[in-house]
Amino acid sequence: MKLKSIILIVTISALTSVLSVWGYSKWMQKQYAGTQESGKLPVNYAGFFDKNAPAGPVDFTAASTSATPAVVHIKTRTKAKQVTNNIPKRRSPLSDFFGDDDPFSDFFGGPRVQMIPEQRASGSGVLISDDGYIVTNNHVVEGADEINVTLANKKSYKATVVGRDNNSDLAVIKIEGSRFPYLVYGNSDETRLGQWVLAVGYPLNLDVTVTAGIVSAKARSININKGDSPVESFIQTDAAVNPGNSGGALINTNGELIGINSAIASPTGSYAGYSYAIPVNIAKKIVNDIIKFGAVQRGYIGISFLPEGLSDEQKKQQGVKEGDGIFVSGVAPEGAAKAAGIQKGDFITKVNGVAVQTGPQLQEQVARFKPGDKVSVTYVRNGKEITTNVTLKNQKGNYDVVKNEPANIVNKLGAELVTIDKATAQKNDIAGGVQVKKINGGLLKNTRMEAGFIITRVNGQEVKSLEDLTNLLKAAGGQVQLEGIYPGYEGTYGYPLNLSAEEGEGPEQ
Predict the structure, then answer these.
(1) Is-catalytic flag, 246?
(2) Burial label, 414 (beta-carbon count in 10 A; 0-12, 13-18, 19+)
C-alpha cells in the first residue's frame, strides 16, 4: 500500500510539471509572437548559409593589386576654337573705298565671333589587351585633338581613337606597345544585389584610386546617353565615383572587370551616393565591333516601347493594357519583329530565356547581338504565352554589316563636295578646303549651312582636300564641328553635325 501511494504521488507530480511547462510555453508564445527559433531560417534565406556562403571577411587587397596596373589615366586637350552665330556678313558698299579699315562695315550686320579657349580634361580607361587597346567613355575623348595615356607605373603614351559609340557612351583608343597589363572580363550577368564591388580610376586628377561599395540596383536607366538609339542598363553601386572616374573599371572581388564606370547621380556634380557602370557583357560586344568593323553592329528587334516611370493615367492615354513584361507600343513595318509575328499590344517577357520586365533589361539583352543573329523571344498575347525566333536586323531594316568607311561618311552628308583649286584658296586667303557645291539631302540638310560654304576644319583640325575631310570624319565619328568660310563674306562659321544620326526614325529596339 505504501508503494502504490508513492507511485501515485510521483505520477501526479510529473504530470503536473509537464502541464505547467506546456502552459507556460503557450503563454510565452503569445507574449513574444514572431520571434525566430534558433537554428531555423525563413525560406528567403534558403541556400545562403551553405557552401556558397563566404568563409570569412571579404578582403579587397588581391583584387585591388591586380586591377590598378591595368587602369589608366587619360588626359585630353581640345584646341581653341572660333565660333560664330552663322549669320553671313553683308559686304559694305564702301569697302572698296576704305578697304580693310572700312569704318562702316559694322553697320551691315554679320556674325558675332566668339573664341572658345583651349580645354583640358581627364578621365580613366581600362586596358583590355596586352597590345594596348583601351576602353573608356565616349564623353572622355569626344572632340579631343590630343589624347595622352599614363599608366600606373607613370609611363605615358600618345593614344589614337579607334572608334566611338554615342548610344552606349563607349569608346576604344589605342596606345602603341606590347606586354601591357590588362583586366580579364568577368560576367556582369552574375552580379547580384548586395554584392561587393570596387571602382578603380583617377578621380579629381588624383593618382589611381580604389573605392568599395555594393551593387544597389541593376538595369538602371537615367536618360544620360546621347545618340539616336541610346542604350542604358547600368549597374548602380554606392562605390564612391567622382569626376575623373569616367571610363574606369568596376571590378568584383576576384579582380574581374564587370563594368565601365560612366556616370554619377548628384546635385553637385561630385559623388553623392550613387554611381553607374555599363555592364561588361554589353561593353565587350561593342568594343569587339569597333575593333573589327570600325562601327557597332547593333541588332534590332524592330519594336518601340514606352519609357519607364509613366503614371497610370499616362499609360491609359497611350492604350497600355495591364500585363507583365514590356508592352509593344509599335512594330516597324520592315522590322524583325513584324516578320516573326509580334504585334502591337503584345507583352515581351523573355529574350533567349532571360526574363525582361523593363526597357533597359530588354536593351541589355538585345545589345549583345548583331544583325543576322537569331534570338528567342517570348511574348504574351491575350493571356497566351508564345515563343518565336527573331532574326535581328540593323537600323535600316536589313542584315548588312555597318561600316564606318570614309566614303560612306561623306555620302551621308548628302552634298556635292569638291576640293577647291589654288586660285580659290589664294583669293580667300586659306590654305585649302572642300567646297559644298550643292546640298541634296542627308545630314547637311538639318544644318543651316548653305551651298558655297568651304569647309576648312573638322573639330579644329585643318582640311585642305576631300581626302582630309573623309579621314577626319572617319576618325571623329559621332558629334563633329565643321568650320569654314563663305567666299565674299567675312568671318569663320561653324556647324555642329551628328554623324551617328540617321535620316529617319528607326525602331527603338
Answers:
(1) yes
(2) middle
Catalytically annotated residue among 92, 216, 233, 246 = 246
Torsion of CA 452, 458, 462, 463, to 10 degrees: -50
Task: Give the DSSP letter string of 184-225.
Answer: PB--GGG--TT-EEEEEE-GGG-S-EEEEEEEEEEEE--S--
- Bridge partner list, 479: 498
Is residue 145 part of the annotated active site? The answer reads no
- Stated as kind and residue range, the H or E segment containing 256 is none
pLDDT in tens, 258-283: 999 999 887 777 777 899 999 999 99
Distances (CA, A) of 324 to 6, 136, 155, 507: 72, 36, 53, 22
Catalytic residue chosen out of the listed positions 165, 169, 346, 468? 169
Q: Which of 202, 219, 199 is nearest to 210 (CA)?
A: 199
pLDDT in tens, 241-250: 999 999 999 9
Cα distance between residue 504 and residue 4, in whole Å? 104
pLDDT at 195 over 60: yes
Q: Which residue has the cell 529596339?
A: 509
Note the Cα 268 to chain centre separation in Å.
22
- Cβ neighbors of 234 (< 8 A, separation 6 or more) are 219, 220, 221, 222, 262, 263, 276, 277, 278, 279, 360
Angle between helices 406-413 and 466-476 (to 10 degrees): 100
Residue 52 C-alpha from the chain's centroid: 33
**Neighbouring-strand partners of residue 201:** 209
For residues 175 and 28, what is the distance between their CA atoms, to the nearest angstrom? 72
The pLDDT value given to residue 443: 85
pLDDT grade for 394, boundaries at 50, 70 and 90: confident
Q: Across-strand partners of 214?
A: 196
Which residues fall within 8 angstroms of residue 427, CB to CB, at 6 or more apart?
Answer: 487
Give tens-digit pLDDT for 199-251.
999 999 999 999 999 999 999 988 888 777 788 999 999 999 999 999 999 99
Catalytic residue among 139, 229, 275, 289: 139
Give, in order, the Cα–Cα distances in Å from 507 to each of 232, 340, 350, 394, 502.
Answer: 16, 15, 19, 10, 11
Q: Residue 55 is placed in which grid cell?
A: 568563409
Does the annotation mark 96 as catalytic?
no
Q: Model pTM?
A: 0.69
